Amino acid sequence: MSKKILAANFKTNHTRASTHEYVEALDSALQKMGYGSEVYIFPPATALDRFATQSDIRIGAQNAYPTVKGSFTGETGLEQLGEFGIETLLIGHSERRHILGETQEFIAQKYAWFKEQNFTIVYCIGEPLEVREAGDEAVRRYIVEQLEGIDTVYDRLILAYEPVWAIGTGKTATPDLIEATHTMIKNLSERPLLYGGSVKPANIAEILAVPGCDGALIGTASWEVESMLDMLSKVKGEK
Ligand code: PEP
User: Fold this and answer.
1) Partner of 26 at 20 to 30 A CA spacing, among 4, 197, 232, 233?
2) Which residues line ligand 1 (CB under 6 A)?
3) What pTM was estimated for this model as a whole?
């Protein structure tokens, strides 16, 4: 299998101590495997740190505020991320859009600001169930709106298509649906495109074999390091 990008979103799981144990275990296993593809880990903000890894594990933040520092209670700015050398950020995740109420306008502002800082941005898009049920054209329009204000040719952009109805639900989109949606999205941006939504050891090989699928963004099934390693072994990247 050609090089795939795997990204683990811990969401509100893991502590600082358990993140260290996880990254150490992952690092030594990746070295033994000779794993050569990109692996991103997004721990919670309290677990961000510099990790002494030998393999190519990149640590990213799940969220940050578009500021160097300032008065934004509860938020994390560039200065705080810089302390740990963090240069990768998840933006537009459906939980931030739908639970935390981030608007497209704010998301686009955040994107533009961190792009200016040369961050690698994993940018999430994906439709809720009612939009999927309204048909392909409704999905296309919804996704076009989620790309409003986003520089889709930015060379450090990685897109992630994550249908909301498949996130954390155990329901995975079928390979045909992933292929059709990825083809539509690839007409909007040529940047690498991950799939996310209940990816797990049992389905990762099939999903990554879908034409136009450049990797996976994984939530639940990434939280146990054994499960993450199981998935990595199935897509063993080329050196
Ligand atoms: C996610 O939160 O990005 C995600 C894909 O979650 P899960 O794998 O649990 O569906």
Assistant:
1) 197
2) 9, 162, 167-168, 196-199, 217-221
3) 0.96
